[in-house]
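Board notes (copied after class):
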Amino acid sequence: MALTSARPDIVLTVTLEEVVITVNTNLLDNEVMPRYAEPADGEWAQDPVAALGNSVKLAIIRAVREHPDANSVRITEMLRLGRTTVVEHLAQLEEVGILLASPPRPNRRRGAVVTYRVNSARVTELYLQLGQAMGEV
């Protein structure tokens, strides 16, 4: 038995033993279906959106602002989130310069306690970029 979806690029074949999904890659190769929806002129807004467009990242920034020099354990406790989630977001925020770590990543030894503080200049820069992207500034 074969079922046809509303999308011409997907055919679903169902048997009693297995389910097979076939994707017509010709449509994907011809870029009929974009992978991500994005405005044509949106590239310049990606940096602040990626850096600030996540509620966990915003909560971490707020927590570190309220408790400068907090470490990942303290931030995890404050936000009541999983340690892996917090550590992943801390690394991303450090990478884009929103958080400053002590010791910095190149000087860090395995097992070292790392404390964080907010780089207010970088946050302001991203905030202004976001405002420009929305036509506010």
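Comment from the instructor: Confidence is low (pLDDT under 50) at residues 27-42. The chain has two domains: 1-37, 43-133.
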